[in-house]
Amino acid sequence: xxxxxALTLFLASMLIVAFAAIxxxxxxxxxxxxxxxxxxxxxxxxxxxxxxxxxxSALKGKNGAVMIFMATRCPVSNAYNDRMEKLAxxxxxxxxxxIGINSNVTEPASEVKSHAAEKHLTFAILKDEGSxxxxxxxxxxxxxxxxxxxxxxxxxxxxxxxxxxxxGVTANDVRDALDEMLAGKQVTKTGGAAFGxxxxxxx
Amino acid sequence: xxxxxxxxxxxxxxxxxxxxxxxxxHSPTAGAASKARTPGPLVRDGVSATEIRxxxxxxxxxxxxxxxxxxxxxxxxxxxxxxxxCREEFPDLVKIDSDYRAKGxxxxxxxxxxxxxxxTKVEPFLKxxxxxxxxxxxxxxxxxxxxxxxxxxxxxxxxxxxxxxxxGKVIFKHFGRIKPDELRSIIxxxxxxxx
Lengths: 203, 195
Prior knowledge:
The complex is a heterodimer. By secondary structure, chain A is α/β, with parallel strands linked by helices. Chain A is built from 7 helices and 10 strands. Chain A has one domain: Glutaredoxin. Chain A has helices at about 1-25, 55-60, 75-80, 80-90, 110-120, 130-135, 175-180, and strands spanning about 45, 55, 65-70, 95-100, 125, 140, 145-150, 155-160, 190, 195-200. A 4-stranded mixed β-sheet of chain A has the order 3-7-8-9, covered by helices on one side. Chain A has a two-stranded antiparallel sheet with strand order 1-2. The termini of chain A are far apart. Chain B is an alpha/beta fold. Chain B folds into 2 domains: about 1-35; about 40-190, 3-Layer(aba) Sandwich (Glutaredoxin), CATH 3.40.30. Chain B contains 7 helices and 8 strands; from the N terminus they run ααβββαβαβαβαββα. Chain B has a 6-stranded mixed β-sheet. Chain B has a two-stranded antiparallel sheet with strand order 1-2. The longest helix of chain B has 21 residues, at about 1-20. In chain B, about 30% of the residues are buried. The interface of A and B includes residues 28 and 31 of A.
């Protein structure tokens, strides 16, 4: 009887230790995980700042698209305005479309429109009300980039390049990925880490 | 000749004036603070203020490896004044620092602000928050090696909070705004167990 009690106590304590270990290693972010490299991105529809609906399939180029989660007020995202526009201009003729997505609940469509005009951004910028597309992509910060190929396969997810300051850039991660993809090669660096502003969602 | 002498005289007077103006700013407190290389709170004019030390990738690695003699649990928070969620959770962190420091928690807040924003943005924010934890500013061109030195699975989401136990093992990590009660209960276990 006493032995049984000791065993129960032992098992119970083991269970507590196991639970503690699970809790300790547990979930480190509250957001859905982003799609894996190589997975197919489903089509979606979002309105632009004028309220006109666009689908990914209609906007993307024949060779793919670069989706950039961006912001109007984030200094990191703003540091990349010129680089985003240049990327759009440089790759348009190569069949790649740059698509901006603003998922910040704090930044209304009117602000997205005036910001684009002020910063001379000519590529499509979509307003993601309710951050639904950001949720689907597991996007957390601005700027954050997702590159898909002509068959909607995700080939790159991460930063634009390796320095917030344009003069410090020594690695153009997104351009390198696009060039490899366009040359029919496997993308060697499929992601890159960088600090950015948190996407403000409705909570 | 007389003209040259006049210039010399004016120059000398200017130098003396400059020295006179510059001297008061080199108060003993400021001098001592700039020499102190260990991050830590210091008290200035009765108001607690935090000295912000700049670190590079090597400095970050050193901070994470820690002094073997320091057996306190270490709490690290990556933040910036331009990060809204970081600003929002900061009062909770200030409170955690003041509640747990005496119990042996070592807290270092790592700012990712631009070096040029220290005086204009970082310091005023810390003052407003009445922050007393150690604050360092990570100054790196390419953030990726620094991010991966902390955690290979981290993509740079902010804020990011890590708790290391006495042995330097990560026992808690969270990307996004922390839940203070959850973090506190984990710190409690760390500072509560016997040394």
